[in-house]
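Sample pair:
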Amino acid sequence: MATTSVELRDRVAVLRLARPAKRNALDDATILEIERFFLDPPGEIGAVVLDAEGEHFCAGLDLSELTERSTWEAVEHSLLWHRVFDRIEAGPLPVVAVLRGAVIGGGLELAVSAHVRVAEPSAFYALPEGQRGLFVGGGGSVRVPRLIGAHRMADMMLTGRVYDAAEGQAVGLSHYLTGAGEGLARALELAEKIAGNAPLSNFAVLTALPRIAEAAPAQGYLMESLMSAVSAGSEEAKGRLRAFLEGRAGKVGR
Protein backbone atom coordinates (compact mmCIF):
# COMPACT_ATOMS: atom_id res chain seq x y z
CA MET A 1 0.00 0.00 0.00
CA ALA A 2 1.15 3.54 -0.72
CA THR A 3 2.38 5.35 2.36
CA THR A 4 2.21 8.81 0.81
CA SER A 5 -0.29 10.66 -1.34
CA VAL A 6 -0.03 13.59 -3.75
CA GLU A 7 -2.54 16.34 -4.39
CA LEU A 8 -2.07 19.03 -7.04
CA ARG A 9 -3.31 22.56 -6.40
CA ASP A 10 -2.42 24.68 -9.42
CA ARG A 11 1.38 25.15 -9.25
CA VAL A 12 1.70 23.61 -5.78
CA ALA A 13 1.93 19.89 -5.04
CA VAL A 14 0.91 18.62 -1.59
CA LEU A 15 2.95 15.55 -0.64
CA ARG A 16 1.27 13.90 2.33
CA LEU A 17 2.58 11.21 4.67
CA ALA A 18 -0.20 8.62 4.88
CA ARG A 19 0.42 6.35 7.87
CA PRO A 20 -1.77 8.01 10.52
CA ALA A 21 -2.22 4.78 12.49
CA LYS A 22 1.57 4.79 13.00
CA ARG A 23 1.69 8.55 13.70
CA ASN A 24 3.29 8.70 10.23
CA ALA A 25 6.44 6.94 11.42
CA LEU A 26 8.95 6.55 8.60
CA ASP A 27 9.64 3.09 7.25
CA ASP A 28 11.88 2.40 4.27
CA ALA A 29 8.91 2.22 1.89
CA THR A 30 7.86 5.76 2.88
CA ILE A 31 11.39 7.11 2.52
CA LEU A 32 11.62 5.63 -0.98
CA GLU A 33 8.20 7.05 -1.95
CA ILE A 34 9.38 10.49 -0.86
CA GLU A 35 12.49 10.05 -2.98
CA ARG A 36 10.47 8.98 -6.03
CA PHE A 37 8.30 12.06 -5.71
CA PHE A 38 11.27 14.44 -5.66
CA LEU A 39 13.06 12.56 -8.44
CA ASP A 40 10.08 13.01 -10.75
CA PRO A 41 7.74 15.71 -9.40
CA PRO A 42 4.38 16.06 -11.14
CA GLY A 43 3.64 18.66 -13.77
CA GLU A 44 4.95 22.19 -13.88
CA ILE A 45 4.86 22.80 -10.14
CA GLY A 46 6.78 25.62 -8.49
CA ALA A 47 6.64 24.56 -4.83
CA VAL A 48 5.75 21.64 -2.56
CA VAL A 49 3.79 21.47 0.69
CA LEU A 50 4.88 18.57 2.90
CA ASP A 51 1.89 17.56 5.01
CA ALA A 52 0.70 14.49 6.94
CA GLU A 53 -2.59 12.73 7.56
CA GLY A 54 -4.03 12.65 11.05
CA GLU A 55 -2.99 14.45 14.20
CA HIS A 56 0.79 14.00 13.91
CA PHE A 57 3.38 15.10 11.38
CA CYS A 58 5.82 12.27 12.02
CA ALA A 59 6.84 10.27 15.10
CA GLY A 60 10.23 9.37 13.61
CA LEU A 61 11.74 6.07 12.54
CA ASP A 62 9.34 3.13 12.53
CA LEU A 63 11.09 1.12 15.26
CA SER A 64 9.43 -2.09 14.07
CA GLU A 65 11.91 -1.97 11.18
CA LEU A 66 14.88 -1.59 13.52
CA THR A 67 15.84 -5.26 13.34
CA GLU A 68 19.25 -6.71 13.97
CA ARG A 69 21.46 -4.90 11.48
CA SER A 70 25.15 -5.21 10.95
CA THR A 71 27.18 -2.05 11.39
CA TRP A 72 27.50 -1.69 7.64
CA GLU A 73 23.76 -2.22 7.10
CA ALA A 74 23.10 0.53 9.65
CA VAL A 75 25.48 2.86 7.79
CA GLU A 76 23.70 2.10 4.50
CA HIS A 77 20.32 2.81 6.11
CA SER A 78 21.53 6.18 7.41
CA LEU A 79 23.01 7.04 4.01
CA LEU A 80 19.62 6.29 2.40
CA TRP A 81 17.96 8.89 4.64
CA HIS A 82 20.77 11.36 3.93
CA ARG A 83 20.29 10.90 0.19
CA VAL A 84 16.54 11.44 0.31
CA PHE A 85 16.57 14.38 2.71
CA ASP A 86 19.40 16.02 0.76
CA ARG A 87 17.23 15.76 -2.33
CA ILE A 88 14.57 17.77 -0.49
CA GLU A 89 16.89 20.41 0.95
CA ALA A 90 19.22 20.79 -2.03
CA GLY A 91 16.68 20.17 -4.79
CA PRO A 92 15.17 22.76 -7.13
CA LEU A 93 11.71 22.89 -5.51
CA PRO A 94 11.00 25.04 -2.44
CA VAL A 95 9.33 22.91 0.26
CA VAL A 96 6.98 24.18 2.98
CA ALA A 97 6.30 21.72 5.83
CA VAL A 98 3.13 21.67 7.94
CA LEU A 99 3.92 20.59 11.50
CA ARG A 100 1.35 19.35 14.00
CA GLY A 101 1.47 16.88 16.85
CA ALA A 102 4.60 14.75 17.06
CA VAL A 103 7.68 16.03 15.24
CA ILE A 104 10.03 13.53 16.80
CA GLY A 105 13.41 12.02 15.91
CA GLY A 106 13.46 11.25 12.21
CA GLY A 107 10.30 13.32 11.85
CA LEU A 108 12.23 16.37 13.02
CA GLU A 109 15.06 15.44 10.66
CA LEU A 110 12.56 15.36 7.80
CA ALA A 111 10.99 18.65 8.88
CA VAL A 112 14.28 20.54 9.00
CA SER A 113 15.14 19.41 5.47
CA ALA A 114 12.23 21.59 4.30
CA HIS A 115 12.92 25.25 3.56
CA VAL A 116 9.98 26.80 5.43
CA ARG A 117 8.15 25.29 8.42
CA VAL A 118 4.63 26.19 9.55
CA ALA A 119 3.62 24.87 12.99
CA GLU A 120 0.23 24.48 14.63
CA PRO A 121 -0.16 24.81 18.42
CA SER A 122 -0.23 21.01 18.84
CA ALA A 123 3.29 20.57 17.45
CA PHE A 124 5.97 19.28 19.80
CA TYR A 125 9.60 18.47 19.11
CA ALA A 126 11.85 15.79 20.62
CA LEU A 127 14.99 13.78 19.90
CA PRO A 128 14.56 10.66 22.08
CA GLU A 129 17.39 8.70 20.48
CA GLY A 130 19.60 9.13 23.55
CA GLN A 131 17.04 7.37 25.78
CA ARG A 132 16.79 4.50 23.29
CA GLY A 133 20.50 3.86 22.99
CA LEU A 134 20.60 5.37 19.52
CA PHE A 135 21.99 8.39 17.69
CA VAL A 136 20.35 10.46 14.98
CA GLY A 137 20.94 9.08 11.49
CA GLY A 138 18.89 11.20 9.09
CA GLY A 139 21.08 14.29 8.98
CA GLY A 140 19.83 15.77 12.23
CA SER A 141 23.27 16.31 13.71
CA VAL A 142 24.05 18.60 10.74
CA ARG A 143 20.74 20.41 10.21
CA VAL A 144 19.30 20.83 13.70
CA PRO A 145 22.36 22.58 15.24
CA ARG A 146 22.27 25.10 12.38
CA LEU A 147 18.84 26.14 13.65
CA ILE A 148 19.08 25.86 17.43
CA GLY A 149 22.78 25.30 18.21
CA ALA A 150 24.61 22.13 19.16
CA HIS A 151 24.12 22.67 22.91
CA ARG A 152 20.32 22.82 22.64
CA MET A 153 20.32 19.69 20.51
CA ALA A 154 22.60 17.95 23.03
CA ASP A 155 20.16 18.88 25.80
CA MET A 156 17.26 17.36 23.84
CA MET A 157 19.15 14.11 23.27
CA LEU A 158 20.70 13.81 26.73
CA THR A 159 17.69 14.73 28.86
CA GLY A 160 14.73 13.95 26.60
CA ARG A 161 13.63 17.57 26.66
CA VAL A 162 10.50 18.28 24.63
CA TYR A 163 9.82 21.68 23.06
CA ASP A 164 6.20 22.70 22.57
CA ALA A 165 5.08 24.71 19.54
CA ALA A 166 5.74 28.12 21.10
CA GLU A 167 9.17 27.08 22.40
CA GLY A 168 10.05 25.55 19.04
CA GLN A 169 9.10 28.78 17.32
CA ALA A 170 11.22 30.78 19.77
CA VAL A 171 14.38 28.71 19.20
CA GLY A 172 13.98 28.54 15.42
CA LEU A 173 12.47 25.14 14.67
CA SER A 174 9.53 26.77 12.86
CA HIS A 175 9.12 29.97 10.88
CA TYR A 176 5.37 30.51 11.35
CA LEU A 177 2.99 29.60 14.18
CA THR A 178 -0.70 29.39 13.28
CA GLY A 179 -3.95 28.65 15.03
CA ALA A 180 -5.23 25.09 15.43
CA GLY A 181 -6.15 23.56 12.08
CA GLU A 182 -4.76 26.52 10.13
CA GLY A 183 -1.36 25.12 9.18
CA LEU A 184 -2.19 23.70 5.77
CA ALA A 185 -3.97 26.84 4.60
CA ARG A 186 -1.03 28.99 5.69
CA ALA A 187 1.47 26.63 4.07
CA LEU A 188 -0.49 26.67 0.80
CA GLU A 189 -0.61 30.46 0.87
CA LEU A 190 3.16 30.62 1.32
CA ALA A 191 3.82 27.94 -1.30
CA GLU A 192 1.66 29.71 -3.86
CA LYS A 193 3.54 32.95 -3.22
CA ILE A 194 6.87 31.13 -3.58
CA ALA A 195 5.75 29.40 -6.79
CA GLY A 196 5.00 32.84 -8.23
CA ASN A 197 8.62 33.97 -7.89
CA ALA A 198 11.01 33.97 -10.82
CA PRO A 199 12.37 30.38 -11.06
CA LEU A 200 15.95 31.64 -11.29
CA SER A 201 15.52 33.62 -8.07
CA ASN A 202 14.18 30.54 -6.27
CA PHE A 203 17.08 28.53 -7.64
CA ALA A 204 19.54 31.10 -6.30
CA VAL A 205 17.93 31.05 -2.85
CA LEU A 206 17.86 27.24 -2.63
CA THR A 207 21.19 26.47 -4.26
CA ALA A 208 23.51 29.46 -3.92
CA LEU A 209 22.47 30.93 -0.57
CA PRO A 210 23.39 27.87 1.56
CA ARG A 211 26.82 27.68 -0.10
CA ILE A 212 27.41 31.41 0.36
CA ALA A 213 26.47 31.16 4.03
CA GLU A 214 29.02 28.37 4.56
CA ALA A 215 31.82 29.98 2.51
CA ALA A 216 34.59 32.24 3.72
CA PRO A 217 33.54 35.90 3.29
CA ALA A 218 35.71 36.58 0.23
CA GLN A 219 34.34 33.53 -1.63
CA GLY A 220 30.82 34.29 -0.43
CA TYR A 221 30.91 37.84 -1.76
CA LEU A 222 32.13 36.63 -5.13
CA MET A 223 29.41 33.98 -5.40
CA GLU A 224 26.85 36.59 -4.39
CA SER A 225 28.02 38.98 -7.12
CA LEU A 226 27.89 36.26 -9.77
CA MET A 227 24.46 35.00 -8.72
CA SER A 228 23.12 38.56 -8.49
CA ALA A 229 24.29 39.29 -12.02
CA VAL A 230 22.90 36.05 -13.43
CA SER A 231 19.50 36.64 -11.80
CA ALA A 232 19.24 40.31 -12.82
CA GLY A 233 20.26 39.49 -16.39
CA SER A 234 17.34 37.18 -17.04
CA GLU A 235 14.49 38.40 -19.23
CA GLU A 236 11.99 37.57 -16.51
CA ALA A 237 13.82 39.76 -13.99
CA LYS A 238 13.92 42.63 -16.48
CA GLY A 239 10.21 42.28 -17.13
CA ARG A 240 9.37 42.24 -13.42
CA LEU A 241 11.52 45.32 -12.82
CA ARG A 242 9.75 47.19 -15.65
CA ALA A 243 6.40 46.22 -14.13
CA PHE A 244 7.47 47.61 -10.77
CA LEU A 245 8.79 50.86 -12.23
CA GLU A 246 5.60 51.31 -14.23
CA GLY A 247 3.41 50.77 -11.16
CA ARG A 248 2.11 47.41 -12.32
CA ALA A 249 3.59 45.44 -9.41
CA GLY A 250 2.77 45.57 -5.72
CA LYS A 251 5.04 47.35 -3.28
CA VAL A 252 6.56 45.82 -0.17
CA GLY A 253 4.55 46.55 2.95
CA ARG A 254 1.70 45.39 5.13
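DSSP finds ten helices and nine strands in the chain.
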